[in-house]
Amino acid sequence: MNKLVSPKDIVDSGLCIGCGSCVAQAAVRGTYMDFDPIGQLKPHGPAEWYRSRTEQFTQTCPFSPGAKNEDQLAALNFPGAEHKDNAVGRYQTAYVGYVAEEDFRTHGSSGGMVSWVATELLRQGLIDGVAHVVATQNPQEDGRFFRYRISRTEAHIREGAKSRYYPIDLSEILALIRAVPGRYAVVGIPCFIKAIHLLRSEDPNIRERIPFTLGLFCGHMKSARFVESFAWQMNVPVTEVSRVEFRQKDPNRPANWYNAKLTLRNGQTVDKDWWNLADGDWGAGFFMNSACNFCDDVVGETADISFGDAWVEPYSSDPRGTNVVVVRSTVIENFIQDAIQQGRLQLENVDAKFVEQTQAAGFRQRREGLAYRLTWWRKGIRLPKRVAPDAKSPTRQRKLIYRLRFQISAWGHRVFRFARAVNQPKVYILWGRMAGAVYYGWAYHKGKWGEIFKRFTGRF
């Protein structure tokens, strides 16, 4: 048995992703999830609980050194999986394509497959509800723009379409699932799905009531300050924002040309392309949760089915959006095959290599990049990973990129917090533009100062 750890140990080591699993299973009153000073969700509660090192917590926190890893969980849950791949994990089949039925594709960020599978599980009577993330009705009063909700109708499931680059947690929804009998599917990013499976192994109630998990490919978790940065750069008060859309679809633009849109309480809307935002380069790591530096699951390896964007041509240029899908559940595979035969889904079989290519940047960060970070990061808990520490394989340029990304992620939180405290958004925006320019110059142009200058001044 590994050394026991506490919630405090995980938080202090920068390994808390804010999933809320610890709060969901706490038998102590007064535990809850709330935002920390940099806009990440963290557990709070009585000191005796927060500092207590228990076997239960050690085995169920997804970033605990004592928890089963993704390979072990997949072996337990998908023993009959036909394929095994170092990047994609165990799986039955993989596809690329979209939903041809109704308007699922139109209203989703990508090809509409997440909402379709959740709806089909409900239609076939395999579940009674879907736990997924939806926009809150009044974020200014609620204190959050997004939360988990259980949807029990097709119309309500569809309200959860679109990407949500915002911190949420499972604590309240797991409490509801415990309290209300039924069969539920849970939609979540890889570490959240891992947390569900770790809880299922310890809690018969959770195991019985969550028969299906739907995973989302993940680059990293953002801080709540990401939305505030949008508001700053669109010159609107964040206190007036009532709705956030991170990725608007436009029939005249490629799917990978992200455009963010804010709706204000008076009905006014403002939008801006991500490449015009100081922190709009996803790969630079702005507002990233520190735990994401130590995650090695890109594609939701423990989910019954997982979904991502097909970021390779010709799919990435298709404005309608295209999914890449990895299936591990025989039940789900069967009804997907039926739907393909009926023309409800337009999916083509692909192999693990294709899936990996669609997420090439994510795999570099969480394989080669993680191996390199493990050679120099020494804070707190030493987390065993499925990649070995390696400082020899990355090129000098790649090492610098990984270092820059790490520092942008760490310092971005601090600079934004300072700018927020002194009410000077320009302090952060200027810093972000400078940091992004240096990252862009090294990542794409090997440090050519002319390219860095053009990026900083906004001349492309």
* Major sheet characteristics: 8 strands, mixed
Apparent shape: globular
Query: How much β-strand is present in the residues?
Result: 15-25%
Mean pLDDT: 93
> Which oligomerization state do the chains in this entry correspond to?
single chain
Q: Class of the domain at 82-222 and 287-359, according to the CATH hierarchy? A: Alpha Beta
Give the proportion of residues in helices: 25-40%
CATH architecture of the domain at 82-222 and 287-359: 3-Layer(aba) Sandwich
Secondary-structure-derived class: alpha+beta
Q: Widest sheet: strand order?
A: 7-6-8-9-13-14-5-15
Distance N to C terminus: 55 Å
Tell me the number of helical segments per DSSP (H or I, 4 or more residues long): 19
Uncertain spans: none
The strand count comes to: 15
Radius of gyration: 21 Å
- Determine the CATH topology of the domain at 82-222 and 287-359: Aspartate Aminotransferase, domain 2
